[in-house]
Amino acid sequence: EPPFIDASRCYGCHACIPACPFGAIVLNGHGGPA
């Protein structure tokens, strides 16, 4: 797997949370910790 992660595809995507940088979730504001 490529080390690059497309954070733009993780905004609001709960399924992507474990695969994306935590910052992407925080910046989104809609993907709080679950």
Task: Spell out the key features of this protein.
about 35 residues, mainly alpha, 1 helix, globular
Structure described in brief:
The protein has 34 residues and is an all-alpha fold.
Shape: globular
Number of helices: 1
Low-confidence stretches: 24-28
State the secondary-structure class. Answer: mainly alpha
- Estimate the helix proportion, in percent: 10-25%
Quickly count the domains: 1
Mean of pLDDT: 54
Oligomer: single chain
Radius of gyration: 9 Å
User: Tell me about the biggest sheet?
Assistant: none
Strand content: under 5%
Order of helices and strands: H
Tally the beta strands. 0
Give the N-terminus to C-terminus distance in angstroms. Answer: 26 Å
Description:
The longest helix is centred in the last third of the chain and has 7 residues, at 22-28. The chain has one helix spanning 22-28. It contains one helix and no strands. The protein has 34 residues and is mainly α. It has one domain (1-34).
SSE topology:
Elements: H1 22-28
